[in-house]
Amino acid sequence: MAVRKANKTDKDQIQALMDELNLFRKKIFSPKNQKFHERINPYPLLKNKDLDESYIFVAVDDSEKIIGFIQGSTHQRKNHKLNKLGYIDELYVKEEARGKGIAKNLFSELESEFKNQGCNHMTTHTDFENELSQRFYLQAGMHKATIELWKEL
Length: 153
Prior knowledge:
This protein has 153 residues and is an alpha+beta fold. The protein contains five helices and five strands; from the N terminus they run βαααβββαβα.
């Protein structure tokens, strides 16, 4: 297994993993939160521009098949001491490849990239029901900062 920066030829494999991730999310949402997460339109397809404008790293097996990916972006936060944010947009590892340190390696690669870009902190959001994700991020040294609440009107 190796981790490398994604390129345009990886787009279809990454898109397939994004679709798999979204199916996984649907399985873990409680019935009361299904409606909150439901979309009118599917997630937009990954574009070449996304590979240029965000930071995407992939984990590949010996045959160069992508078995996991992480996508991040950077943002400025006005009026904050921690003003340059590295944001983890997505992180996913195929179920059969989990437990081998792949997510940790992807996370470390993106964290290093954020540091190189001058970020002074990084954040992400995860679904309340996604305890696997929450455990991973806490073990990676992240801390809980906010809780999002919702109510249908």
